Amino acid sequence: MKYAFMAAHEQEFSLKRMCRVLRVSRSGYYAWKQRTPSKRERANQELWVQIQAAYQLSRRTYGSPRIHAYLRRQGYFCGRNRVAYLMKLHQMVARKAHRKHPVTTQPFPGARTAPNLLNREFEAVRPNQKWVSDITYIDTAEGWLYLASILDLHSRLVVGWAMAEQMDVDLVEDAWKMALLNRQPGQGLLHHSDRGSQYTSDAYQTHMAALQCTVSMSRTGNCYDNAVAESFFATLKTECAATQFESKAGARSAIFAYIEGWYNRQRLHSSLGYLSPVEFELSSGH
């Protein structure tokens, strides 16, 4: 294992330093390199090539569980622990987000709110049964953009979304209109959001009433009441918007490609048995 680590990091660290830190000799390392690789070592080398390809395909966001699931889907059978070992050996890690952000929930005094009817029951047996909506910020060098999204809890599919420079009612209305166009839900849909002024506005509530939606809202200051929407935004920030975009146009393009090209159609979700939202809906017969 020590020699394998040294071989993997020869371009980063001096051989002398690695030998000293790992307490091995140069002669031992050179002897190890000159011998014929074992069957297991050759298999690991082949597996590492597949892991690298999967990691790049995932935009360098997959950890070992998703890479393992992806490889199995491709017909490459290997142990999850073996994938984790090789990733650790080569110091391959998934991205992590760590960004400060402005407050997006702005309650309006005296607004018409609704109780939390979703009650953290984040499963739905069929599409268009429960939708969750929220707003987040997107950081660009030209200023903030805001993203509103609506997810179907059955498959975690983003059914509607919109971006704008203002965090107003028009933003959430545009996301709602896209969701209606994409899904055409019937009566009885439960729509959950926070108590922000955009969602409690008369204009947005008129849309809810027109479809006879059951309206549900998170309790004030409790992000866990809308955990799925929060999780989607955290994933997006990690995988697509971890750093500041150079322009608003670039941000819009990247977010479009991420949601429509990657998240809905390709990204493997652990909660869906490592299927994408589109695949999950197809497999469930909806």
Can you describe this structure?
The protein has 286 residues and is an alpha/beta fold. The chain has two domains: 2-89, no CATH class; 130-283, Nucleotidyltransferase, domain 5, CATH 3.30.420.10. It is built from twelve helices and five strands. The protein has helices spanning 2-8, 15-22, 26-34, 39-57, 64-73, 80-89, 169-183, 197-200, 202-210, 227-239, 248-263, 277-283; strands at residues 130-140, 143-152, 157-164, 190-193, 214-217. It has a five-stranded mixed β-sheet with strand order 3-2-1-4-5. The longest helix is centred in the N-terminal third of the chain and has 19 residues, at 39-57.
Keywords:
single chain; 286 residues; alpha/beta; Nucleotidyltransferase, domain 5; 2 domains; 5-stranded mixed sheet; 12 helices; elongated
